[in-house]
Amino acid sequence: MALQVVLLGPPASGKGTQGRRLAEALSVDYLGTGALLRELLENGGAQADEIRPILARGGYLPDGLMCGIMAEWLAGHRRGWVLDGFPRSVDQAGFLDSWLGDRGEALDAAVLLDVPKPELVARIDQRVECPSCRWSGRADDRRDGARCPDCGGRAGRRADDRLENFLSRYGEYQRHTVPTIDVYSAAGVLLRCEASDRMDRVAERLEREVRNLTSHGQAT
Ligand SMILES: [Zn+2]
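# zinc ion complex -> structure
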């Protein structure tokens, strides 16, 4: 069975790390919208010209543009997925719902990584990223001092980890993503995962809970 899961959560809640691990555990594709948009920029052309100024301002793409990009990605990835960074608004969630509905499918789960704001702020202070494989985590999660635990590359601070940048993204999250979470909750597909714990423990619990949720009454 091809599981189709969206991952929701505030900035710095660990969506990238948890999303990759969950996708690997479920044998489905992982999509981080940040990486996808960077790839589109590198490809150049009219689409790149349209999105470049928006990303340069640190903003999110308008719903119509983002949904168009996603329609293309979804059509090319039919073995199941974990989406990180989409949907980010109620309209985007509506688009995904129709896209799946048109194919007689439905979302298996919307997973919320729940982390209280003071903990997120503390994480911003601690956060490091590997430029080679895009791993990100706490400074303490590195090995041999400054080495990435996944590929052994050098992992350091991210340029965008200033507190003000976080607060602006957190505001966007509250305005647009929190109402989206409410929609999924009302639809009965929300899986709330307490994610303040260590990365490994959250990953194990998350995988177990998604498997439990999706095995009810379905043959896997
Ligand atoms: Zn790495």
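# post-check
DSSP finds eight helices and eight strands in the chain.
Helices lie at 15-26, 33-43, 46-56, 63-75, 90-102, 117-126, 163-187, 199-215.
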